[in-house]
């Protein structure tokens, strides 16, 4: 959309008014990333970066950048050597308090650690000191060029190397490497400002083996051989300002495919997969066309690249002008099931190109706008591509997911606002993790967050119309593209960032509507609405009395006030009513239109104008109501439980044309196992015009109904005759037709029906013999020779069906399972599984779907006691080197085994795999599966729950997973599931069994060790808002004076003490937990080395210090090197910090004394009290604590 | 050949070659065949206008003819066996002749030529003395039985095969006490697992070719297109076609006017500059 000059100027000015405020005292304008050596054998990378920055404040003397796991050799600013410190508190979250093992404590500490390096708060792991020679230069706000040489050795996150161990050169082996990670993770592979809000232009250079291709962001300018002609260098330029977090890289011996429809689009895949790539990407141009058309905006980048790689971190990852996909999305023309899934992935990534890559976000709390818009336009694409039915079905599915999640965990907040960081205002106190940072979020929460974001966008669309919605998007895009073309006006670039307020302003400008209530309800507030509806028909008044109740007290719910649409289908037609849901009104009277008794033979008009004949005999003769729907358009994020008679549900299923209504009625009919329900479902199954997904779920509902009606069921097993009629030969009904999957709808039905049938049970609760024979016959006569499509998914579902037919074995006093006492039916099943599994070795199916199903079926047999329970088979399939789907299926079985058999050995095996497996996705998945299917939970007695396990998991989340945010959050989730928020019950009581409340002068049991039964109450008590005594500690920004008083007076349990200690860390001006701590003090906190000052010589801060020393010459002593306090930090803070740290040391110390003299601990506390105050007096003048020493000698203060 | 025949001149005509008497019946057959061939060669020579030929030249020609015919036989046999038959058919012979560089189309005309010499052969004996009429059972055409048979046959093959594989290789078992009833071929990790998982098997590829006609159409389309381009360009723009062949994606390109796609990844890699401005130092 072309903008006139005036318009642009006006927009710019308006934006400028409340422009983006950078948290950094400088502006980054350009960055060079040059990787001159990549060694696949050693999995190492060597290179340098050069950042061009302009100071925005005069006395800029240190620059904070993000960098993780990189080894930094040398930093130069404008060719002058610069001192630097590399410190990362997230490496090890909790150093002290090793006895605590309390998740509450950990989560706070973790959030503090992430904050301490959060680029959005202007922090970073790497702190560079501007050489004094440049201070004058800086004061004139002149350009600085920071040149950093770095290397990466065996990176565990950020960059993933895939190096198959076969013969041949790296290119022949298909070795490749690619960047990956969750949210902003670019700091894992090169030093940068790893924020979505710091945009700059890029020059990227990668020198790789001549047989390899390096794919990165922006335009490939040229490819040049090195002098020895054995390598080549790829030069990329990205002139559109882009955040470092959107920079990516993929290097490998890729096959190159230029899109035949769009020559500026290039696809890459691993060797031998080119035919699949051709087929898979042949569709992409249509997605491009669709988005460009609805957004009336061209694709913002001059080129686009798709790369398909193995061992992907996520299926789809979108970066500036390129997307990285899992190679497992590739498929041939014969595959049906994968095709829509892959296309959805392609469309999703492309939507994120516009919103997410090109348009970035201002801060984490604006993330929902980007996720929402990209998810929303992706939904529009779905609607256009797969049809309205599929779209509505998807929306319903997403809605159900978010509702289920919020009700379970207590709410997803799209736009968290942190009022000064007060714990009291913590909007997510119900969660076991902080939602302040993307990196502390549970993965599941994050997926639900995205889900909710796009649903809310849809709600906004409902409110302001799609046309306006698209205009808003177009406005955002055209503003951004105007800004992006301003090459040398980096202050303009902030217009490429979207913020919640900017977005809302755009909406009100474009539409003129006030959507504030909607935003307040769904964006600023978490929770969903839970409606309970019931009705009565008042014949006298001819009025429908509808009662709608809400549950807004359970966790995850909120109160809804506002309009609510209700659709009533009457004999005379369908009528929409908009009710006003208010505080106290539960009952709503809706006048009915159909006055009298129904006219015979009159067609009934439906919502869509269609008129149908209905058999009305089932109806209540007095009521004209056919069915009622509450909120049919899903314009509230809600769960509706509505009561209406079974015949109404049946009418709704048969005649309502909306797939969502059909789906809902199917769900409701489960509760009405009557012949009428059976008939309605069977009719739906037979109806060709009915949406296939509805028919599929009707299958399962029918199976459930049949089981409930088992004593009165007549005729052959449910669905059997139907299946025979639809898919078997006319002449011989027991033989299925040779496969022909040309009609996808009947294909899906053919696949699903046997699976549902296998769930049928007879009066003995066994699967009827007839059904089993039927399924075995389907397998036997399966013939795919004449089929255009592969039948691998179909066969896999047949195995699933076999597994579904398995019922628990009748066991006579726990006999050992052997072949001899094998049930003959099971023998037949096993025969098939064996054959299928073995055939897979010879003729593998696509994505090994059959192996996956076989493994699942074997686990089912084991679990039901037909086959001895044994994890050995699964463990062999779970090994690295199998296809990832197989591994996951096998691991799932092992996880299940661990739970059922309470096997410590298998749990250990799984935990080891979490630590050592080469594939990040598998590690993540194991944690995820363990969380979903935990071996025990916090309220459960289990022999597995022991101290060693606690230690192991604690270590895993504390330090073992520092290279992967997602993994760490997964570990936190698991810890939460197993042990809850408070101290695990299996741990022995800590030494500090009793604590004193000096104020109330009494001793109480240490709350952290209260056993589980009480722990729940305790959790509530720990909730800061409900515990007045703790408020002071929870507030890190109250004056230090206050805190000291409280410190002295009300420290009454270690819990409060810790949170206090923690809050110190959250101060923006206070260095992070270990920030400036020399290696010696770190090791001092590890119990084994309690007195050692020289252990752990390999910790990173130490070497970087050493290097820094080398770099700067002899002018400064090592101690001084470390002194980089924040210029604005008040002195008191430092004093406080040192007190706190001292304090904790003493606290520790006292633990031991307590052990000896428990009886005297009241006295001890007093002693401690005194001790502290003494310490505090001394602190500022001694140099015993490095932190305090630094604060005194800081250059800014001496200035 | 005409020259050679000319130099042969008028040698002893009608020479009947090497008539060493042999008692071995095999040798007799050999000689008889040889003699027949000599008759053929001689009549062909006569047909070509020779009145006489040297013995050695007739012998050479006979030798050539014999090897030619033997080669046809050998090759036809191979073709026939290749398609799992034991009886060669006409098409086997045709393919053989084509393979040997013989233009089959000329054969009928040659056979009907006017000056053809007719070698008289003895009459065939009565048909019943040599005709074979094998009898078969009525072929089963019942659909159900056929499906049944196909299914069980396939199942048997699969089972036999997998059992064999299981017997010869490592196995896993679901029952500790019994390893033979349900033998599972042991899971073996792959070095590159995604290849087997994603690429269709040969069998499937074959099926795809057989069943998927639309794909084939498309393929031939693109082939034709490529052909057209190369024919058009054949004379003048050789360079263009070579570019086309290098570039795998272009065959898919539908817009004819754009012959060269300007995609940076297809551009040639540049040679390094002789001297860099600044060597990279650490």
Question: Strands, helices and their partners?
Answer:
The complex is a heterodimer of chains A (1199) and B (282).
Chain A: H1 5-17, E1 26-39, E2 44-55, E3 62-65, E4 71-77, E5 80-81, E6 84-86, H2 103-116, E7 126-129, H3 135-139, E8 144-153, E9 159-162, H4 170-173, E10 176-179, E11 199-209, E12 213-216, E13 219-225, E14 231-243, E15 249-252, E16 255-258, E17 265-269, H5 274-281, H6 284-295, E18 304-309, E19 316-319, E20 322-326, H7 338-354, E21 360-361, H8 367-409, H9 443-464, H10 466-484, E22 497-498, H11 500-511, H12 516-522, E23 529-538, E24 543-550, E25 562-570, E26 573-581, E27 587-591, E28 604-605, E29 611-612, E30 625-630, E31 638-642, H13 646-655, H14 659-669, H15 675-686, H16 692-708, H17 720-727, H18 744-757, H19 769-780, H20 792-804, H21 824-842, H22 849-863, H23 872-877, H24 884-901, H25 904-916, H26 920-932, H27 947-960, H28 965-979, E32 994-997, E33 1002-1005, H29 1012-1022, H30 1031-1034, H31 1040-1049, H32 1054-1066, H33 1079-1084, H34 1100-1112, H35 1118-1121, H36 1131-1156, H37 1161-1178, H38 1186-1193, H39 1195-1198
Chain B: H1 2-8, H2 25-48, H3 55-82, H4 90-99, H5 106-111, H6 143-168, E1 171-172, E2 184-185, H7 193-198, H8 202-211, H9 213-233, H10 238-246
Antiparallel strand pairs in B: 1-2
Descriptive notes:
The complex is a heterodimer of chains A (1199) and B (282). Chain A is an alpha+beta fold and 1199 residues long. Chain A has seven domains: 1-87 and 125-250, Immunoglobulin-like, CATH 2.60.40.1730; 88-124 and 989-1100, no CATH class; 254-337, Zincin-like, CATH 3.30.2010; 360-522, Neutral Protease, domain 2 (Orthogonal Bundle), CATH 1.10.390; 529-636, Immunoglobulin-like (Sandwich); 715-869, no CATH class; 1136-1199, no CATH class. In chain A, 42% of the residues lie in helices and 16% in strands. Chain A contains 39 helices and 33 strands. In chain A, the strands form nine sheets. An eight-stranded mixed sheet of chain A has the order 5-4-8-2-1-11-14-13. In chain A, a hairpin with a 5-residue loop joins strand 13 and strand 14. In chain A, helix 14 packs parallel to helix 16 (692-708), helix 19 (769-780) packs parallel to helix 21 (824-842) and helix 20 packs parallel to helix 22 (849-863). The longest helix of chain A is centred in the first third of the chain and has 43 residues, at 367-409. Chain B is mainly α and 282 residues long. Among the domains of chain B are: 2-128, Histone, subunit A, CATH 1.10.20; 143-185, no CATH class. In chain B, 52% of the residues lie in helices and 1% in strands. Chain B has helices spanning 2-8, 25-48, 55-82, 90-99, 106-111, 143-168, 193-198, 202-211, 213-233, 238-246; strands at residues 171-172, 184-185. Chain B has a two-stranded antiparallel ribbon with strand order 1-2. In chain B, helix 2 (25-48) crosses helix 3 and helix 3 packs across helix 4. The radius of gyration of chain B is 33 Å and the shape is extended. The relative contact order of chain B is 0.04. Chains A and B meet through strand 13, strand 16, helix 5, helix 21 and helix 23 of A and helix 6, strand 2, helix 7 and helix 8 of B. Chain A: InterPro entries: Aminopeptidase_N-like_N_sf, ARM-type_fold, Ig-like_TAF2, Peptidase_M4/M1_CTD_sf, TAF2, TPR_TAF2_C. Chain A: Its main location: nucleus. Chain A: Residues 1080-1102, 1182-1199 have a biased composition (Polar residues). Chain A: It comes from Colobus angolensis palliatus. Chain A: Keywords: Nucleus, Transcription, Transcription regulation. Chain B: InterPro entries: BTP (IPR006565), Histone-fold (IPR009072), TAF8 (IPR037818), TFIID_su8_C (IPR019473).
